[in-house]
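Quick note —
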Amino acid sequence: MSDIYTISMLISIATFTITTYISPGPTNIILLSSVLNFGYKKTVPFMLANVISYPLMMLAIGLGVGLFLTQNQSIMTALKVVGISYLCWMAYKIAKDSSSYDMQNSDETKPFTFWQGFIYPWINPKAWIVNTSAISIFVTSSENSLIQVGIIVLFILFAMIITVYTWSFGGIVLKRFINNEKFIKRMNFALALLLISSIIPII
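Predicted structure written out below.
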């Protein structure tokens, strides 16, 4: 392993992946809101989508897709427009999901689906730029590049598992202590605004 990565480099990769993915951002805000409104079980498809999607995206970047996209301004602009529109729609859906505290039996509102969670990283231009930069930093050997990309993808897989369970646990804890419908409405509205504010770095 030392001829592929040193211990210090592995620590750097672990630090990057954990801090990048567990920090507050659109995906984690949506995850928290979903657990609050629909419970853990109905949020599992969204959680699973993110655990699968982000590592796959990094693998695609490691194979050269990211460099192609980030160097093509028209594609990045299109991704920005689509990504911002998608986030605005998600924020609207979160705000709208505040009609009732007992969402378990509601037919009017539904949690985000697997595919809605899966598609977001791929239309987020910031994710392409950040992850492409990570590949350029952490892939240090042309001879072992594929192995190094595989290791980075594995780290992201573990980071995403930790992330989705950390944020879902936070939602479960909040849900146990919150039984006021007005507070849930305000919480959802605040989360929707927070999601909208996360668009600023993309712009």
